[in-house]
Sequence to fold (694 residues):
Amino acid sequence: MGTLLQSTTTAPGRFGPYGGRYVPETLMVPLFELERAYELAKADVSFQGQFHYLLKNFAGRPTPLQFAWRLTEKLGGPRIYLKREDLLHTGAHKINNAIGQGLLAVKMGKPRIIAETGAGQHGVASATVAAHLGLECVVYMGTEDMARQALNVARMRMLGAQVVGVDSGSRTLKDAINEAMRDWVTNVRSTHYLLGSVLGAHPYPLMVRDFQAVIGREAREQILAAEKRLPTHLFACVGGGSNSIGLFYEFLRDASVKMIGIEAGGRGGQLGEHAARLAAHQGFTGARPGVLQGTYTYVLQNEDGQIATTHSISAGLDYPAIGPEHAWLADQRRVEYFAVSDQAALDAARLLSRTEGIIPALESAHAIAGLVERLPKLSKNDFVILNLSGRGDKDMDTYSRLL
Amino acid sequence: MKKRIYERFKALREAGELGIVAYITAGDPSRDATLKFVLTLAAAGADVIELGVPFSDPLADGPTIQRASERALKSGTTLAGVLDLVSRIRLSSQVPLVLFSYYNPILQMGLEKFASTAEAAGADGVLATDLTPEESADYRRILGAHHLSTIFLGAPTSTNERLAKIAACSSGFLYLISRTGVTGAKDALPDDLPALLRRARAVTQLPLAVGFGISLPGHVSVLGGLADAAVVGSALVSEIEKATKSGASASAIDAAASALSEKVRVLKQAARHGLSRRAEGPGSFFGKVAP
Fold:
């Protein structure tokens, strides 16, 4: 990494002022152990060999970088490439990180993994890896999300995982993480917490990013082969931020590459109606730096420091905090963030389905909506890579109600 | 005023008696009720009161305190409101008061404003559940400057080196978590608790309070020989929940107060008649000048 745009800075586990480790004491030594195990694994040839073997032969990497010619023609702007993470086993990029952490759990001798899930994609990926590696798996999921992502609940159960419904708070991702952390703090000696995004206490934001960075490494090679030059823009949706940082990370030192993260604008700018943490410039209110679930980052909250409820049609983006590295990239203006509405995401899902024959996940549909909204500022000479992070099977209930 | 905590533990140690630290969530079901509960607990013999600041995402708490936090938030309780409550308690009681909070509400108020307001209100110490020594340099400096004890948690998973570090950052007392897990009443104390207490005693002369899962007189008796105080939380909070189940009428609040009083009286009795006084650690903490 070059110095100017270096992302990981200052103290270990910090991205500028963001990140850190804000957890109950019981979890501190386990976090140190995880950090040490991860550092060793990074340099361990056999671990890396297993990781890459499974990425290739189990998950289906590398994923294609597809030129979306009909979408390009239809929008009449820049050339658009789709990074097809939706084609991975289990249907989203989440499997990359689940394989990495699953192997790490085995290496640490933990027979049991727990996970939180919003859209269910991380839960399915965790259940899949647990089955493949012979680990016990418990997935925490808000009951609101269980209702809207019923297909994924069934998949997890089919894979032998126990899905525990969480009925507190807004019954979504945030509450599932609280419950997963309560389980972890109780069973920490036998259990690895397979956190699904670049959130939580150090080393999670860094480790999950590293496991997802394969997206950008592949995309960089593929685009250089196809176009003989770097893209002008990258687009990705941002919930916690793992698919976006996975795509962006390899390009951070390329100053010519503009990066755009798309958040969930929900139904409007009022606190409670959206999940946009870095879009105050668009009138989305309530985000300030604070501490939630282990990390210091931008958090949607009220004046008293109580965490706000959020809304998004997309369960995977419906979360009040953003990964600490994104907070730092936003402060430095290295990545630009803005939000699109529920409706724009639905329109974009239909657009992609009918122009390219790809039904995107609602999360990824936000990235497409972001591209559509940004179109007036893009020229025909630009060309973009958009991370199509997941497929839309799980969202068919929502989509079919709108047809 | 950390001196109140120090003096209380000194008196307990001189009497060879285990202290009872009583936790309740502030604002559950209302701040007026909490005022009454605190005075009742103090009168019944609670040695230190921990006032829980409700938080929307209490990830270190079990179901009992989660529900209490929800009730308190519903009644409009904020950190500023809890600090105001502290000053109201101070009009009629000198019982040592510790604020038990998650870090974010404190951070959002601002460390300086929080510390100066808490000091002026008459709080004695602060414990932030999700704050560890590593992230707490500013917090300790600013709270220390306002004469507030900074109490940190030690856990069964903490190594001896960490226990020493945690103790070095703590003042007032060291709070040891009896088991890996969240808050909540349990039947039995874990087998490795005496070992944890011994490990802590080897690295600090601070008074040792043990919490998480303590609810019964039997627990308190066992701790008599080992610790300086037992923290009782969920067991008290569930008395409040039971009594106010069908509404927070004046008579329901009275009933809750009587139940709390009875509970603390019984625990205090067990503390007095427990095993003989604990062994002194290396040197004596209480021989020194008050902090």
In short: Chain B touches chain A through 40 residues (CB under 8 Å). The first strand of chain B starts at residue 19 and ends at 25.
